[in-house]
Write a structure and sequence with these properties.
Elements lengths: L9 H13 L4 H15 L10 H18 L6 H8 L1
Length: 84
């Protein structure tokens, strides 16, 4: 195991920490998750962009594809049984 030191602005660290805490993660777990995804994706696990229309179009396309080809369940019990 190794230690990773990164430099970020205090306000960014505080805001990120608050956001991560709200979803049940600490900073170390979030960074570790990000790095695992970088390895799995062989690059960034997202496309950096500020183009809101491109983000929305990508989301809409993924949603349409999921609705077209994804599984559906009659109730939560069916879903949980499939996960197991």
């Amino acid at each position: 195991m190794t230690t990773l030191n990164i430099r970020v602005e205090d306000s960014l660290k505080a805001k990120a920490g608050k956001t991560l805490s709200a979803v049940g993660l600490d900073m170390s777990s979030a960074v570790r998750t990000f790095l695992y995804q970088v390895v799995l994706e062989k690059g960034l696990p997202f496309t950096p962009t500020k183009n809101i229309s491109m983000i929305k179009a990508r989301w809409d396309n993924e949603s349409r594809e999921t609705l077209r080809s994804g599984k559906s369940y009659k109730n939560a019990k069916e879903l949980l049984a499939d996960i197991k």
